[in-house]
Queue: 2 jobs
Job 1
Amino acid sequence: QVQLQESGPGLVKPSETLSLTCTVSGASISNYYWSWVRQPPGKGLEWIGYIFNSGGSNYNPSLKSRVTLSLDTSKNQFSLELRSVTTADTAIYFCAGDRNNRAWSYYWGQGTLVTVSS
Amino acid sequence: EIVLTQSPGTLSLSPGERATLSCRASQSVTNNYLAWYQQKPGQAPRLLIYGASRRAGGTPDRFSGSGSGTDFTLTISRLEPEDFAVYYCQQYETFGQGTKLEIK
């Protein structure tokens, strides 16, 4: 059974970098498409980006200049880095994945709330 | 960039009724790669339908997806109490704004 768990700080100061890690169990991250999605409190879903072990990746154009996704196959983890955050980046951040396609995700983490505040 | 517009914004129905949710794309969806998710409060989204009409593992058969090109539909044939939630469509990097299905 594939399980995903997000981890990282729940509070980040404006202008700093938000860093989250998703730990995958029950599957090798080498063979899946991995994504990050966020959801501001009370609002809808926003796709952040995806990464695949072959080196393929793509980012939301509105976030592209501030986002980096990476994989750590030795730890079976993948990570999100979002730079120069503002209060508009306050959201629940979900990691997600699918074995066959990057157009959707079958597996999801429970989500972690990150608040941007001084 | 494709824009997905879901309608209605809120749908009020009773258990046992049929629900029809719409997702319209601003341009044709490649290979009908359109997915539907269900999200309940405090939970992650759950993949229900992928490829416009294929049920994901664990999706009850009362859920069905249809459509092609720019117009897609999620149908719930007979609503169960646990079906009342928010539903999102997704095409690659774009999500619709969601339809809230509430108990009438």
Job 2
Amino acid sequence: DAGVIQSPRHEVTEMGQEVTLRCKPISGHDYLFWYRQTMMRGLELLIYFNNNVPIDDSGMPEDRFSAKMPNASFSTLKIQPSEPRDSAVYFCASRSSFTANEQFFGPGTRLTVL
Amino acid sequence: KQEVTQIPAALSVPEGENLVLNCSFTDSAIYNLQWFRQDPGKGLTSLLLIQSSQREQTSGRLNASLDKSSGRSTLYIAASQPGDSATYLCAVVPMEYGNKLVFGAGTILRVKS
């Protein structure tokens, strides 16, 4: 199994630009999570999906952030327009409701907004 | 609101020592607790998952215990090696949220050769 796949691994952009982060969950997993990690706030859940449907987006910081899951094997997190305070590492994770509820994380995308 | 605290924030030990990392959480109503390892610039690797009905889990040199009533978990690492150097994160899934992992800030471990 390839594990959770994220792209790009690194992204450097300028303030005001649109940023799209991508995630492919582990095949067969029906839950997908987006997390953000910063030095100041640690790891925080942004949004999660179950069977491609957004269930809880209370962690999404503001309207500039949006996430979609058009099918079971792909999700995107979009920031438009980006700001320097969005600089962080963004992780995608997935799990199966048919196993022990263990979440498996991707390698993350390190975003730098100049 | 569930809060997770990890002590110590950083730990440096000589190779070969047995060590204990601590995790505490404020609300005992949890589904499970998960220990992760994070290497610098890398993602999170799941080490052990303890369901709320379990007391401990073991994997190789790692043993994690859970005392739900007191809101505590420990991760025991036997015969530490330089390759164990990493940040160790503890996270719980509160029953209040169902799926959301609430993380501690982590313990930075350095094992000196």
